[in-house]
Specification:
Four Helix Bundle (Hemerythrin (Met), subunit A), 11 helices
Length: 294
């Protein structure tokens, strides 16, 4: 019997618009999870709620030193979190409550994980450096992922195909339920400052390269190589780092990796993108000038 389901609906981008998201390598089998959830006719909100519960349970086991169990639960949380949006698109059940609950669930789970790692490292070693490291890790993790999300949204807008999640942030004249209003309020309080910061970073980056003739804003946002490299900064990779550190019995190591190594990668990616685009524009300008002289 042939499979008549259009599984491409699960993807945010289709055909030539797709780019390779490196963070999905850590949950390479999640497409099978989506199919399983679909055939079980699970509600996407139920899958999302399960993801949040698994993440919080991971923090509890982490607190009691059950590191392997905490790692497995956090990994399963990542699989469910990656699947709920795809499942909602497949079943035509995308909702505004799901949009806000997804992001707030990420904030809650990852904040709890970082807090538990930080507190336990401080209690075990008595060194205040872990408090500072935990705070830096928290800010770094969310700024890095906001950077990824910002350019993914900009990529979709440049294709004139805004992502459904972005569309669901605005009511479009609809009357919101009280629960949606509350979730939207918390979402804006927790994420709006990140959006403002990343928008300013983008404007600063553009101001460096748009002095060259031939600057194309669409081309700036449609760089698939950059999008692929940028995808390492999303939550999936952070969770994989936590998973590995838990399994090898050193949760505090994740703080150093995210706060130091990931930030080095983050800044190198920003600088490298600007430099590569400047070189490309300069070479294009030189070719045009040379062509005009012939």
């Amino acid at each position: 019997m042939s499979d008549s389901i259009d599984w491409s609906k699960a993807s945010k981008f289709k055909g030539r618009d797709k780019y390779f998201n490196l963070s999905t390598l850590w949950i390479f089998y999640y497409h099978y999870a989506i199919r399983l959830f679909y055939y079980l006719r699970l509600n996407p909100l139920a899958v999302l709620s399960t993801a949040i519960i698994l993440g919080l349970a991971s923090s509890v086991f982490l607190w009691y030193g059950k590191l392997v169990t905490a790692a497995v639960l956090l990994h399963l949380r990542d699989v469910c979190d990656a699947s709920d949006g795809s499942l909602a698109r497949l079943r035509g059940m995308t909702t505004r409550i799901g949009r806000f609950l997804d992001s707030l669930g990420d904030m809650l789970v990852l904040t709890m994980v970082i807090a538990v790692i930080t507190i336990k490292a401080f209690l075990a070693n008595g060194e205040s450096i872990y408090i500072g490291l935990g705070i830096i890790t928290w800010f770094s993790l969310f700024i890095q992922c906001s950077y990824f999300n910002y350019y993914q949204l900009k990529y979709a807008e440049s294709l004139e195909k805004p992502l459904q999640a972005k569309l669901e942030e605005n009511s479009n004249g609809e009357t919101d339920s009280q629960s949606v209003k509350v979730l939207r309020l918390f979402y804006r309080l927790l994420y709006s400052w990140q959006d403002i910061l990343i928008r300013q970073i983008d404007r600063l980056s553009i101001s460096i390269v748009d002095i060259y003739p031939g600057f194309d804003q669409n081309e700036w946002y449609r760089n698939k190589i950059f999008l692929t490299l940028n995808s390492l900064l999303c939550f999936g990779t952070h969770i994989f780092v936590f998973f590995i550190c838990f399994v090898f019995g050193n949760p505090a190591l994740a703080l150093y990796i995210i706060a130091i190594l990931f930030n080095l990668y983050f800044f190198a990616l920003m600088a490298g993108r600007i430099m590569a685009y400047k070189i490309k524009l300069a070479e294009s300008s030189t070719r045009k000038l040379t062509g005009n002289r012939k």
